[in-house]
Amino acid sequence: MGNKALWRKAIGDARLLVIFLTALLFVFNWLFVYLSSLIELGPLAIFLETLPPSFEKLSGVPFASVATPVGRISAAFVDPVVLFSTTIWAVGRGSDAVSGEIGRGTMEMLTAQPVRRLSILATQAIVTTIGSAILASAVLLGTCMGLATVKLSEPVFWTDFVPGVLNLFAMMFFLSGASTLVSSADDYRWRTIGIMGAFYMVELVFKVIGRLVERFEWLMYFTFATACEPQALVIDYDHAWALSVRYDGVLLACGLACYVGAAVIFCHRDLPAPL
After folding, report:
1. Are 115 and 172 in contact (CB under 8 A)?
2. Can you give the pTM of this predicted structure?
3. DSSP letters for 79-130
């Protein structure tokens, strides 16, 4: 843990990606506040309220709330730009922890140094977690900048968005932990990313089916996506902190369990010789 070379390597490997994604998320969320201020739903808001309850159930948030300034701005938290950026960071860094190093042939050099395998993995995990916090902060700061510079139809407070941002951070922590777990047992990074991609899609399908079909609601207990509700946590501010503790607690606990599992596997497995 105290090896400066490990820290320099982990930070150097992650630096460019975190800088690019931080700038992207900050600018996007700032711009999203401006774009949302241009939208006047008018009759569309009445139309949304007349849609069947199944549509509202699928979205996970009340349509009446989406019509408000807070609701429109919160849509940025589930926009593909934000979700893809945070997922790319978490899966990208998690998959690189072990199988990425093995694939590049650098793992043998790392393990040949007088450092414990646990230190190699812990350094990667800490740098990835700090990067996740930076990206989540960029989302909040971009939103705050938008609120400070864009005139809205009614006052909106930046504190409303804190539970949603914390949920995004918890989601990244879980995904990076799960990716590290798969990476710790794999030799190829492309396969680790493929497994995580398939896992992500299956979990999303579980969530959609569980929401739409009452008899399959039990599927909601088998997908991490159930606890990923950044937009709902912004809109339902009365219950946001209680839900945040529950959702974020589940994601953080599962992510930590994945990291512990990854450490056990990595510390006891045989590593392949570089080709």
Report:
1. no
2. 0.91
3. SHHHHHHHHHHHHHHHHIIIIIHHHHT-HHHHHTSSS-HHHHHHHHHHHHHH
